Amino acid sequence: MRPDDPFDDAVTARAVIAADGTLTRWSEGARLLLGHRTEEVVGRPAAELLADSTGPLPLPEDRWSGTLVLRHRDGGTVSAWVLAHHRQPSGDGPGEWLAVTPLEATDHDLPDDPLVRKAVFQSPCATMVFDQGLRLRGVNDAMARLLGLPADHLRGLRPTDIGGRPQHSELERQLRHVLRTGRPHDMQTHMKARAEAHAHAWLARLAPLTDRSGRVRGVCVTAHDFTEQFRARERLLLVNEASSRIGTTLDVTRTAQELAEVCVPALADFVSVELLEPEEGGGEASGRLTPPVSLRRVAQQALTRDTPPDSAQVGEVTVYPENSPQADSLAAGHSIVASVPAGDLDSWLSEDETQARRIEKFGVHAILSVPLQARGTTLGVAAFARFSQPEAFTHDDVLLAEEVTARAAVCIDNARRYSRERETTLTLQRSLLPRTLPRTAALEAATRYLPAARSGVGGDWFDVIPLSGMRVAMVVGDVVGHGIQASATMGRLRTAVRTLADIDLAPDELLTHLDDLVLHLSEEAGGDSGPGEVGATCLYAVYDPVSRRCTLSRAGHPPPVVIPPGGAAHHLELPSGPPLGLGGLPFESAEFELADDSVLAFYTDGLVTSRGRDPGQGEALLLEALSGASGPLDETCDRVLNSVLAPGGATDDVALLLARLRGLPSSQVATWDIPADPALVAPIRKQVLDQLAAWELTEASFTAELVVSELVTNAIRYGAPPIRLRLIHDAATLICEVSDTNHTAPHLRRAKTWDEGGRGLLLVAQLTQRWGTRHTAEGKTIWAELTLADME
Q1: To pair with 737 at 20 to 30 A between CA atoms, which of 8, 226, 351, 552?
Q2: What pLDDT is attached to residue 299?
Q3: What is the pLDDT of residue 124?
Q4: CA dihedral over 178, 184, 186, 189, signed as positive or negative
Q5: For residue 438, what is the DSSP state?
Q6: Cβ-based burial of 109 (10 A; exposed 0-12, middle 13-18, buried ≥19)
Q7: Bridge partners, residue 191, by sequence
Q8: Angle between the 701-718 and 760-767 helix axes, to the nearest 10 degrees?
Q9: Residues 6+ apart with CB under 8 A from 771
Q10: Rounded to whole angstroms, how far apart are CA atoms 128 and 171?
């Protein structure tokens, strides 16, 4: 018993019965009624007090009232009207029952005023009067109908005796407040009479009753039914809540789940959302559908986790036949209300025994099925079921469900369209990014790309480009914006970078040409109205494994991070160039000598920036995650993403490129200074053959001798001294390079039949896998690359 319940009084007989039917408390009023003392009955079965104890004690599920013949201590019987209700004690447990029997009161401390009596007991409003002890002294017929109890049996009961609902405890608390302050008070409650199926909303006026001296002697409670206003307000609140809670993300599943959560328990006890399976060819359904229909459940919500009155699970596809609410509503194109007691579902449930058993088990009595339709397209259906709420779905409930479902359908359609566009953009993005990285002797690389969690796929990209002379270029860029347009722009810029890298431009020169391209793209995007908004950032680096030097230049991009062997990660200090697309501003390069096994980290700003976090914090987390990156680069990539990205995923695209640098040993490089004398070409060929023999590459001697002879002869004849020959090899490639100080580049041409020259470069092109020219500050270098596997 709660401490605020005055249990021991002589006005009513009270007893508390445990869940197993044992008496646990016995009031003084119960002793006066039946003569049994507390110690004689507590702990004994309550059924022993019945005059006819052959049957079990009628313990209620919620509330019970009726006349019982009880056994008196002297052996006689007492006929008493008993009111019992179930209540849940504090903490967990099966609960208990409070049984009360009013006794005839010997005192009457209410003011004996005929006007008050007339106002109270002849009022058309539901009215009842409590005395100073909060005992019920009288009710009119309207209040008795509301309470669902006979008026002549209620005298002497307390609010908590009438029922164990929270509103009765709140009424008693407010009654005490009015008695203490002497001021009237208004309160709202939501309850139903036992004889009615629908709950009603009541506005109760608690007014103090005073005697001639002004002393408060009781409280008059007058209840006014404002159910319709209450329901209208509840409907508006639900619509408002649906507007704010449904569609918070562009995710179909989450949006459907939000619809289900908003409607439980405000509108139904169980809600499921099921979507049509996409048609072949990606088409969408429109108009009415003919049963049977296949629906995939994407969301559901019940009062508790263990009470879904449905056999289907989220993610499963269910085929609904004709006469099922889901199929009928889709076929009709409007909402369908089905009642189990009325037999509306007999045809469907006769074909689905599992569903029939669950509906019977949970007591589902009404199902409302509403089609999900948006922009002329039928997306699926939302089903609402009631089993805890005893009321059937009314016309207002249907209108409310249709309003909420229509809002959710638009959000789901937006999410589906966004998902399709995102998938298309992501497919385009991934097709434009390198699927595999080239294997080079200069470095080992690992990459990661993550699209933004919410804003969509953007224009981040990365690339690793093999260059001549065993060198390799690394590039990371970020196009402004998101969506297909950004991905397409990214693809054009990546192609341009590869083209510019192929002619061996210096990093600062390459960014200058790329800046011009972005300007042209902006003009094309803007059309006649002016330039468009196309912009990008880029970081471009070239690593030479022979000299172990790396040249870098950036255009508005975050600087890279270097992790030296056994050292701490730190940023490389590079000149900060302007973003691409501004035009007219120069770019600068910086050159660094890096030790073998150093790791370079290139990334886009989506990795270190996020909402609500300072960029410096992201940079610090990145340096911490990269420090000591001596293990596999793939593991380092995963560690960086897990450590640096904010919870909830990246707010912008993330591109990450890690490269472990490997210098080429000097034993794999041979260099000769060539005098400008054609007569010395033969001795040079001999030195090349000796070097190839020392490298155990004799299988490549014949081809290499011809290539060297042609390149050296051309340099002596058309170039300018000093002339230098360099051979570089690794396990798979042999490279021949001839450099001179003449900036004029040769070009390939087809010699005529009687021409004495013009076949040298054609011969080189035929004997090698690749050849080309790169310009340097001192002149040019002509190079040719042979694949050793082809020489075996």
Answers
A1: 552
A2: 93
A3: 76
A4: positive
A5: P
A6: middle
A7: 200
A8: 150
A9: 761, 764, 765, 782, 783, 784, 785
A10: 12
Q: How far is CA 493 from CA 426, 477, 479, 521, 617, in A?
A: 17, 9, 9, 10, 31
The answer to whether residues 672 and 452 touch, using CB atoms and an 8 Å cutoff, is: no
Please state the three-class secondary structure of 522-582 as a single string. HHHHHHHHCCCCCCEEEEEEEEECCCCEEEEEEECCCCCEEECCCCCCEECCCCCECCECC
Question: Cα–Cα distance between 252 and 380 in angstroms, integer?
Answer: 12
Predicted pLDDT of residue 192: 57
Find tokens 């009781």 and name the residue: 218
Burial class (CB in 10 A: 0-12, 13-18, 19+), 639: middle
Q: Is residue 685 within a helix (H) or strand (E), and if so which, with residue range? A: helix 681-694
User: C-alpha distances in angstroms, 696 versus 312, 664, 792?
Assistant: 71, 17, 12
Residues 644, 646, 652, 656, Cα dihedral to 10°? 20
Sheet with 443-450, strands from edge to edge, namely 443-450, 654-661, 599-603, 561-563, 570-571
| 3-state DSSP assignment of residue 731 | coil
Cα separation, 751 vs 765, whole angstroms:
14
HSE on the CB side for 494, CA within 13 Å? 24
pLDDT value of position 285 = 56
- pLDDT for residue 274: 94
Taking CA atoms, 384 is separated from 266, 300, 398, in Å, by 11, 10, 10
Using CA atoms, how far apart are residues 17 and 97, in angstroms rounded to an integer? 5
What is the number of other CB atoms lying within 10 angstroms of the CB of residue 320? 24
DSSP alpha helix (H) spans, 433-548: 484-502, 507-526
Intervals of the chain under pLDDT 50: 1-3, 106-108, 115, 195, 281, 528-530, 751-757
Rounded to 5°, the CA angle 355-358-362 comes to: 145
For 84, 85, 88, 147, the CA distances from 61, given in Å and listed in that order, are 10, 8, 12, 17
- Tokens read off for 529: 């109205």
CA triple 74-77-78, angle to 5 deg: 115
pLDDT at 643: 87
Tell me the two tokens of residue 745: 């580049």
Give the pLDDT confidence score for residue 608 in this predicted structure: 86
What residues have CB less than 8 Å from 446, skipping those under 6 apart? 437, 632, 633, 634, 636, 637, 657, 658
Provide the strand spans (E) within 424-498: 443-450, 458-466, 472-482
| pLDDT for residue 160 | 82
Tell me phi and psi for residue 548, to 5 degrees: 60, 35
Q: Give CA–CA dist 154/147, Å, rounded.
A: 10
pLDDT of residue 776: 83
Long-range contact pairs involving 336-343 (C-beta distance under 8 Å, separation at least 24): 336/368, 336/369, 337/366, 337/367, 337/368, 337/392, 337/393, 337/398, 338/366, 338/367, 338/368, 338/369, 339/365, 339/366, 339/392, 340/364, 340/365, 340/366, 340/367, 341/365
Q: Please give the full DSSP string across 141-207, using - where no structure is assigned.
A: HHHHHHHTS-GGG-TT--HHHH--SHHHHHHHHHHHHHHHH---EEEEEEE--TT-SS-EEEEEEEE
- ∠ Cα 195 200 206 (to 5°): 110
Which positions ≥6 away from 514 have C-beta within 8 Å? 493, 496, 497, 500, 538, 555, 580
